[in-house]
Amino acid sequence: MGALLRNDILVCAFVAWAVAQTIKVIIHMLVMKRFDWRRAFGMGGMPSSHTSFLVALTVMVAMREGMDSTIFALSLAITAVVIYDAMGVRYQTGKQSHVLNRILHRMLVEGKPLVDNDLQELIGHTPTEVFFGAVIGLLIPLFYR
């Protein structure tokens, strides 16, 4: 466990994730006018902490190992796939969840025969959310130089 904590690349990535999650909680609190601990660890929302984590990791790998290294290529490829997935499949799944929740709400309001479990709507990210997650991921490694 100590080796993981001494790994600056991994620590930097987790710091970027924590910064993004903290900002996400604050934004949610300002918009919704209430504090929600679930936003601290939940998926979706502004900014993308997945993007922050992986961009910080990739930037740190580039700074330490070089952009011509195999590990940088691997890190960049994984980052690109996760970002693409966050904006594509996961975002569309969230939109579908939103529609299904509206259908469930109408059915429940009419007769309430269904269970009241909502689907998770904040699963993916908009390009703006990913962009600001990437900004955090680019800035945090600058403090680790």
Explain what this protein looks like in three dimensions:
- By secondary structure, this protein is mostly helical.
- The chain has one domain.
- Helix content is 69%, strand content 0%.
- The protein contains 6 helices and no strands.
- α3 runs antiparallel to α4.
- The longest helix has 25 residues, at 8-32.
- The chain is elongated.
- It starts with a helix and ends in a 6-residue tail after the last helix.
- The mean pLDDT is 83.
Write the SSE topology.
Elements (H helix, E strand, L loop, with lengths): L1 H5 L1 H25 L16 H17 L4 H18 L1 H22 L16 H13 L6
Helix pairs in contact: 2-3, 2-6, 3-4, 3-6, 4-5
Chain oligomer state = single chain
Q: What overall geometry do the principal axes of the alpha carbons give?
A: elongated
The number of distinct β-strands equals 0
* Number of domain units: 1
Element pattern in H and E: HHHHHH
Q: Give the helix proportion (percent range).
A: 55-70%
Mean pLDDT: 83
Key features?
145 residues; mainly alpha; 69% helix
Quick overview of this protein structure:
This protein is mainly α. It is built from six helices and no strands. It starts with a helix and ends in a 6-residue tail after the last helix.
